[in-house]
Amino acid sequence: MNKNQEETLSLISELKKGSIPSSVEVIIAPSFVVLSTAVSQVANSGIVVAAQNVNAAKSGAFTGETSLDMLTSVGVNTVILGHSERRDLYGESNQIINDKVIQAVAAGFKVIFCFGEQLAERKSNTHFDVVSAQLAEGLKGLSEADFAQIILAYEPVWAIGTGETASGEQAQEMHAHIRQFLSDEVSETVAKNTRILYGGSVKPSNAAELFDKPDIDGGLIGGASLVAADFLAIVAAAV
C-alpha cells in the first residue's frame, strides 16, 4: 500500500527512462486504484503490470474485493497470490490461496505464487517441511502444462521488512529444495523451466550475489522497488 496515482506515474516514468535489459522481465504491481492508468503508461515499454491480489469468485456480495474479470477488463493478466502479508495479516490459508490459483490459471493469468517460512519455523528446523506443504497445498490441482503460467516466489518471512536477508547460501539451499520438490512432485521438465524468485530484503548491495546462485532466477522486490534508481540497479544485477 504505497504511492498514490501521481507518485506511481512518476515512478513508472523514471523506470521507463532507465535501461532495462531485454533478457530481464520487469513486472510492477501498483495499487488497485491505479492499475488501469499504469497499464496505459507502460504500453510498448516491455514492463508488465500485475495485481497484488484477487478474489477467486467471479462476482457477488464480496464488498471491497476484485475479480479476475475486472482485472482483465483493465488489461491486467498477471497476479501475485499468497504474499506473506496476505497470509499473515488477512488470514489467507493454503486452501484460500489454492482456490485463487486455480481460478487465475483457468482464466489465463500468469501467477506469481508466494510462500515461505516464519522465523520460528526456521529456528525449529521445519522450514523445508513448511515450504513443501505450502507448495503442495497451494498449487494442488494444477496440471504439468499449467505450470507454464506459474512463477514461484520464495519469501523467508523473517527477512521481509526487517533488514535481515537470507545469505546467498541459505537462499540457494531453499531454492534447490524447491526445484527438487517440483522434480519429485510434478516433473523434471517443470522443475527445470519454472522460474523461482527470491523475496526478502533484496537491495542493490546484495542482488548480484543472490541472482548469481544457480537456482535463483530473479527477485520479488519490496521496499527497494519504491525508488527507481534502486530498482533499476537490481534489474541490472539480474542479467
Describe this structure in words.
- Strand 6, helix 10 and strand 7 form a beta-alpha-beta unit.
- The protein has eleven helices and seven strands.
- 44% of the residues lie in helices and 10% in strands.
- Helix 7 packs across helix 8.
- It has 239 residues and is α/β, with parallel strands linked by helices.
Assembly form of the protein: single chain
- Count of alpha/pi helices: 11
Beta-strand residue fraction: 5-15%
Total number of strands: 7
Helix-strand category: alpha/beta
Main sheet summary: 5 strands, parallel
Q: Strand-and-helix sequence, N→C?
A: HEHEHEHHEHHEHHEHEH
The average pLDDT value, as a whole number, equals: 96
Separation, N- and C-terminal Cα atoms: 29 Å
Helix content: 40-55%
- Rg, Cα atoms, Å: 17 Å
Q: What would the principal axes of the Cα set say about the shape?
A: globular
Q: Flag low-confidence runs.
A: none
